[in-house]
Amino acid sequence: MKIEIPERKKLVHTMHIPIRWGDMDAMGHLNNASYFRYLETARIDWMYAIGCRPDPQGEGLVIINAFCNFYKQLEYPGDVLVKTYVSDAGRTTFESWATLERVDAPGVICAAGGATTIWVNFPAQKAMPLPGWMRQRVEG
């Protein structure tokens, strides 16, 4: 399926993820929970790439809402290309988005999902303003 990516969404990361046999369900296609795992894996890989590592004694990102729309089945064997986008920086939050396509079928979106991400102080369990460096990453 061809999906139009709105201009406000900024591509920040791409990643290949191999489809594992164990990611499949009884129907012979990728289990719906695996899509969320792939989205999470790409989001965390982007965060590590920009130096945003989890610090339970400090501040960082938490997902407060996540979704995934399924357009075409993914099946073993194969590799998935996950493209991660960010947009809509607020005072404490921003949106992350991703598309999933097979590496051997470029441009054919099999699923698309995203998450609302909030910056928090972990010990205080309280939302904090996005740090300037993170806001710059999101706004570009």
SSE blueprint:
Elements: E1 10-18, H1 32-49, E2 59-70, E3 79-87, E4 93-102, E5 109-121, E6 126-127, H2 132-139
Antiparallel strand pairs: 1-3, 2-5, 3-4, 4-5, 5-6
Please, could you describe this protein's structure?
- By secondary structure, this protein is α+β, with helices and mostly antiparallel strands.
- It has one domain (10-139): Hotdog Thioesterase (Thiol Ester Dehydrase, Chain A).
- It has 2 helices and 6 strands; from the N terminus they run βαβββββα.
- It has helices at residues 32-49, 132-139; strands spanning 10-18, 59-70, 79-87, 93-102, 109-121, 126-127.
- Strands 1, 2, 3, 4, 5 and 6 form a 6-stranded antiparallel beta sheet that branches.
Question: Do you know the CATH architecture?
Answer: Roll
Q: Helical residue percent?
A: 10-25%
CATH first level: Alpha Beta
N-to-C CA distance: 28 Å
- Please provide the count of β strands: 6
Q: CATH superfamily, please?
A: Hotdog Thioesterase
Overall shape? globular
Mean pLDDT: 93
CATH topology: Thiol Ester Dehydrase, Chain A
Overall domain count? 1
What is the alpha-carbon Rg in Å?
Answer: 16 Å
- Following the backbone from N to C, one meets helices and strands in this order, namely EHEEEEEH
